[in-house]
Design brief:
The complex is a heterodimer of chains A (about 260) and B (about 775). With about 260 residues, chain A is mainly beta. Chain A is built from 2 helices and 17 strands. Chain A is globular, with a radius of gyration of 20 Å. Chain B is built from 6 helices and 51 strands. Chain B has a 22-stranded antiparallel barrel. In chain B, strands 9-16-17-12-13 form a 5-stranded mixed β-sheet. In chain B, strands 1, 4, 7 and 8 form a 4-stranded mixed β-sheet that branches. Classes of the chains: A mainly beta (about 260), B mainly beta (about 775).
Chain lengths: ~260, ~775
């Protein structure tokens, strides 16, 4: 909960930090599969690459030559083509809310499958900005405004693009466990100051299913930055992809707003 | 009551010879202040088996055949007293001991009879003298019993910024912390930097790690029994101190000279005054402080009756700007009635209240929300001590506690993002009866054995769910008010024995079973004041611990040196851990987030202590292992618990340089926590994610720290005293890691790095302390 952040914010008043080099092992390389189907017009992309050692560069070897297909529960099957190394795209598949999509990936002799049901869309009404951060001066926080449908378990994910570049430092995934049916003004609080007045901001709101929410929620808990990362047991997030692959397959709706930061 | 006692008596053989026996009994007190002395050693020189320790109220009783005896009474820090008594009939003898502090103890005045560590069968017991801990350097220069017990063998610190401690590999919530008999649920202030115990108000601290006596129950690993001062019953006095971070004041005095007294102690921090000086409006509207109050009054109603009323109230306050507010704290109240039924039978009846609560208020924009949570106990206890005859003592009694837990009451305004939610309260009754027999079988062999029988009853009103393996509720049952949901019955045998090999060395062995029905849920490395307590239920079984230990004890040079070596093994059942991504806060179905398994802990504790002379202190070293096994974690294989510390070394030295200066220092070294670190990385949606292979497969760097402290004694008379304490915590400024996190390198996005956070480097402090 947010109280935990405020709490440890005070701890930071005292602490000192430094970079350390640790004797980290390297696990055997694993497949990482990420794919999505949305209610926007296609094509949709599935990327497949591999894990690397912690101290290696952040270039993840692409996996070519896999057979990838996505089918829906209405009999449509789309066999994806590899358009660039590790990236496989659909042809005719069109995402529709309420459908269940199944991903099937064959790499060598290993088969990986995943299923995700696209929820009904919820509209992002508007994006506003909050300037009253308790921690950093001149901090601007984007706020997503929307009405949570009552009586349904909804799960949301937010992706932001600042001046056309995807913001990847924080994960924003929320459920409506404590806010069912409310009109929500959701703070998209970043771990540092990234927004300045005049920036071009695009906010995409996804409605995701429960397995995808659990994945991103656990990913956010394990991978938290700074002294806030005090979870006693970071672990690999529970993926909806079978057979031990990392990554996630998400069928989600998109509602988007683009505006200038004020 | 008399009939029950006579029937119980028939079950135990009397060791008395046919000749008439009489009893000498009374109370042991400090002659200057009238404070009762707990654990004073009394012995009739002519009857070696008559050795007894004064009880929690200073009472003692020795029953021996008719005769002339010399009664030797001794207690650390006091001049030993020898009294001649003629035991032709029962004798009531109250003893007043004179303090021996202020003298350089280069010459031992008389034989230090304090060999309780060798002769008494109880093992795994550590007593702390409040006068001793005054000189031990502690962060912010304020003496703190919780920090000092972490310097003893088998007790491990939870780290900087954490008040919790681990005893023999157990969890933070497995320690029963009592203040005058009331349970203290969160013994820390200010995120763990201070403890709730104001040492000015504390008389006696005893830590049981091994053979926990049958009168205690409810937690698995240890019992920390803290007793408050009664207050000076002879004269008014005020004492206190002013420091950089906090100040404290104690006022005590007689209600009626020698018959009753009171004591009030208060303490407050003002670290946040520095926040108010800031120009930044967010900072100067923030606050961070705590205050606490200890109060006690006692009155002698007659020769046989004494009444005590004590209480504690403390609160921590953390506020950030005008947007966030967290208040939490404990409050306790105890009413006790001592009644001496006859010279051999002592009774104490206690009525106890204890409450821990926290209150969070968030008022920023649309996140306005208020959360209130508490745990509240009402407890009735009856403890009887029957001093049957010399070397033969029986303790028995009962203990009934009513627990009410309110896990969360959330209130939110109409425009808030959140719905109001009231997680239903839980109600339980914890009832126990116990009996304990302490007997000297021969001059060399002592035994202490007992049985505690506990019933934990979970009561309605409420709805109780059962869950499937994914955590979804599959069934629910509704119970009315007072209806029994489930009962857990447990028998807890306790046994310990000591065998004197020579006059100053002994061998001890013990076995104890303990159970625990209240569990603290916390899935972060540091304890939070907002962690959730839950009772056992239809889903959560009582934790059960079985411990065996064996030890060798040796005193050297007239008990001025104490040496001991103890080994232990403990097996713990029904231990609790959490699913990945567990939601523990404000969750009606929090029990669905738990996984269960068991644990084991074993180790060797070595301890050497010098008690007398210019240089005093101790060295304690623990070599140990504590592991867990859960079906849901690490493929059901044994893995080290987070608090597994292979090595734990503490060295404490106190040196009386001269009449004015006392120097002290301590050095601490321990193996780092077992922890989970990445073994690789990958990318999801542009975000770097880490590969974890094993829970607790790595180790934090070892912790080590050196502290110095110097005490400058000012003018000291019979009534007044003043002294300065100058101290430095972490003298060589080591950055002991508080946490290590993993992130993309901000200056080079093509790399990831590990960043270590440390809380304290050098922390100097000065305080002025007075008494008049």
């Amino acid at each position: 909960m947010r109280s935990r952040y405020a709490f440890w914010g005070v701890v930071l008043l005292f602490s000192c930090q430094k970079t350390v080099t640790l004797p980290l092992n390297t696990a055997a390389s694993q497949w990482v599969i990420q794919g999505e189907v949305t209610n926007a017009p296609g094509p949709y992309t599935v990327t497949i690459n591999q894990t690397v050692a912690f101290y290696a560069d952040n270039t993840f070897p692409a996996v070519s030559g896999a057979s990838v297909q996505i089918s829906d529960n209405q009999g449509v099957t789309d066999v994806l083509t590899e358009t660039s190394a590790g990236n496989y795209t659909t042809h005719t598949l069109q995402g529709k809310p309420g459908n269940t999509y199944t991903l099937s990936v064959k790499i060598g002799d290993s088969l990986f499958t995943a299923a995700s049901t696209m929820p009904q869309p919820v509209a992002l009404d508007s994006v506003t900005f909050d300037h009253s951060s308790a921690f950093r001066k001149n901090d601007i926080t984007a706020q997503a405004n929307y009405q949570d449908p009552a009586g349904i378990k909804n799960y949301y994910q937010f992706i932001m693009y600042i001046n056309g570049v995807q913001f990847t430092k924080d994960i924003f995934a929320f459920d409506d466990r404590l806010s069912d049916g409310k009109y929500i003004v959701q703070d998209l609080r970043m771990d540092s100051t990234y927004l300045t007045v005049g920036d071009q901001l695009q906010v995409n709101m996804y409605c995701i299913d429960v397995n995808v929410y659990n994945y991103f929620n656990q990913l956010a808990q394990s991978g938290g930055t700074g002294a806030f990362n005090t979870t006693a047991a970071p672990a690999n997030p529970t993926s909806n992809i079978s057979n031990g692959a990392y990554g996630v397959f998400s069928a989600h709706t998109i509602s988007s707003k683009t505006l200038t930061v004020y | 009551m008399q009939r029950i006692i006579s029937i119980t008596l028939l079950l135990f053989p009397l060791f008395a010879a046919a000749q008439t026996r009489h009893t000498v009994s009374g109370t042991v007190r400090d002659s200057a202040s009238g404070e009762t002395l707990i654990g004073a050693s009394l012995l009739l020189l002519e009857q070696p088996r008559s050795a007894v320790l004064s009880n929690s109220f200073g009472f003692y009783s020795i029953n021996v055949p008719v005769g002339h005896y010399k009664l030797v009474v001794s207690f650390a820090g006091y001049r030993t007293d020898t009294l001649a008594i003629d035991l032709a009939r029962d004798v009531a003898l109250n003893v007043q001991l004179n303090s021996s502090s202020g003298q350089l103890q280069e010459v031992v005045v008389s034989a230090n009879r304090n060999d309780a560590n060798v002769s008494k069968p109880l093992m795994g017991v550590q007593k702390l003298s409040v006068t001793e801990i005054r000189d031990i350097p502690v962060i912010f220069g304020e003496k703190d019993i919780l920090k000092t017990i972490q310097l003893l063998p088998g007790v491990q610190s939870a780290g900087d910024g954490n008040s919790g401690f681990y005893v023999r590999g157990g969890g933070i919530d497995q320690n029963l912390i009592l203040l005058d008999g009331a349970t203290v649920y969160d013994p820390s202030h200010l995120l763990g930097f201070f403890s709730v115990f104001n040492s000015d108000a504390i008389k006696d601290v005893t830590l049981y790690k091994g053979a926990i006596p049958a009168e205690y129950g409810g937690r698995l690993s240890s019992v920390l029994d803290v007793k408050m001062n009664d207050g000076n019953s002879k004269d008014y006095s005020a004492s206190g101190g002013i420091g950089l971070i906090d100040s404290r004041l104690t006022i005590e005095g007689p209600i009626q000279k020698d018959d009753g007294s009171f004591i009030v102690s208060a303490r407050r921090t003002y670290a946040d005054i520095f926040l108010k000086l800031s120009k930044d409006t967010n900072t100067n509207r923030s606050s961070l402080y705590f205050y606490d109050l200890n109060a006690k009054a006692n009155y002698k109603l007659g020769d046989k009756d004494h009444l005590y009323l004590s209480g504690y109230f403390g609160q921590d306050h953390l506020g950030i700007s005008n947007s966030f507010d967290l208040t939490y704290g404990n409050s306790t109240g105890t009413l006790r009635w001592n009644h001496i039924l006859n010279s051999k039978l002592f009774s104490n009846t206690s009525l106890v209240y204890s409450k821990y609560s926290y209150n969070i208020g968030v008022t920023s924009g649309n996140n306005d929300i208020g959360i209130v949570s508490f745990i509240r106990d009402f407890d009735l206890k009856e403890d009887l001590e029957y001093y049957i005859s010399s070397g033969n003592k029986l303790n028995f009694g009962f203990d009934v506690t009513d627990h009410t837990i309110s896990p969360g009451n959330i209130s939110a305004s109409q425009s808030s993002n959140f719905n109001s939610l009231n997680i239903q309260n839980r109600h339980a009754l914890e009832s126990a009866i116990y009996v304990n027999h302490d007997i000297a079988i021969s001059d060399k062999l002592n035994m202490n054995y007992g049985l505690r029988a506990e019933i934990f009853t979970v009561l309605g009103p409420g709805t109780f769910y059962t869950y499937d393996s994914s955590g979804n509720p599959v069934d629910s049952a509704k119970y009315g008010s007072g209806q029994t949901v489930i009962n857990y019955f447990n028998l807890e045998p306790r046994f310990s024995t000591s065998y004197k090999l020579t006059d100053n060395s002994s061998l001890k062995a013990s076995y104890a079973r303990t159970t625990q029905n209240l569990h603290l849920l916390s899935n972060s490395t540091s304890s939070n004041p907002t962690d959730v307590w839950i009772p056992s239920s239809n889903n959560v079984k009582p934790e059960i611990g079985d411990q065996v230990s064996l030890g060798y004890y040796r005193n050297l040079k007239e008990n001025n040196y104490e040496l001991s070596a103890e080994v232990y093994y403990r097996f713990m059942q029904n231990q609790i851990d959490y699913k990945n991504g567990a939601q523990l806060i404000a969750n009606t179905n929090v029990e669905s987030q738990l996984v269960f398994g068991h644990g084991r802990a074993y180790g060797l504790e070595l301890y050497a202590r010098k008690k007398v002379g210019r240089l005093t202190g101790w060295i304690s070293y623990t070599l140990s292992r504590t592991e867990r096994q859960f079906a849901a974690i690490n493929n059901d294989s044994w893995y080290p618990a987070t608090q597994d510390r292979t090595h734990d070394l503490s060295v404490v030295g106190i040196y009386k340089l001269n009449k004015k200066w006392t120097l002290s220092s301590d050095f601490v070294y321990y193996t780092g926590n077992a922890t989970t670190w990445p073994s690789g990385k990958y990318q999801v949606d542009g975000q770097i994610a880490f590969v974890y292979t094993q829970r607790n497969g790595y180790r934090m760097p070892p912790y080590n720290r050196l502290d110095f402290s110097a005490t400058l004694q000012g003018r000291k008379t019979k009534k007044t005293d003043s002294y300065w304490i100058f101290s430095c915590y972490n003298v060589y400024g080591r950055e002991n890691p508080y946490s290590i996190s993993f992130e993309q390198d901000p200056s080079d996005p093509s790399k990831t790095q590990a960043v270590q956070y440390a809380l304290f480097r050098w922390v100097p402090s000065i305080s002025y302390n007075f008494k008049f």
